[in-house]
Design a protein that fits this description.
Layout lengths: L13 E5 L3 H14 L3 E6 L2 H11 L3 E4 L6 H14 L4 E6 L13 E5 L4 H13 L1
Helix pairs in contact: 1-4, 2-3
Length: 130
């Protein structure tokens, strides 16, 4: 089976941020927004809200902490997104490089919550180029 062709790369990737912690949502939204390299188009704090935002906004990238409220719910979200919207790229985030990370596939990459704002932007932009 041939892979689906990727749409033209966005000049400014459109991002939905998914995290159960409202403070993290706001902080990441602010940090990414000021970069000028990505456009934060939506935020969600749980699986249902994430699916609604993705359906409504059709982002290029979803930045997600899979603990929603647990990793199983987050992994179900990630799996569902990649099946329903195969062109969406997923950037998974969490605390530290030593934590148990979900298996990443060709649609996903990881960036630590302790990373710099530039590293978050780089991961999102790179996610659109892979």
């Amino acid at each position: 089976m041939q892979p689906l062709p990727r749409p033209e790369l966005p000049s400014t990737p459109r991002v939905v941020i998914v995290d159960a912690d409202r403070r993290v949502l706001q902080s990441l939204s602010d940090l990414l927004g000021v970069s000028g390299e990505v456009e934060v188009v939506g935020r969600a704090g749980d699986v249902r809200a994430a699916l609604e935002e993705i359906e409504r906004l059709n982002p290029d990238v979803v930045l997600v902490d899979p603990r929603l409220p647990d990793v199983d719910a987050g992994m179900a979200l990630i799996g569902g997104m990649t099946r329903a919207w195969p062109s969406i790229r997923v950037v998974i985030t969490g605390w530290g490089d030593n934590e148990a990370r979900p298996a990443l596939n060709g649609h996903s990459c990881f960036v630590s919550k302790g990373s710099s704002p530039e590293e978050f932007v780089d991961a999102i932009v790179a996610g659109c180029r892979d």
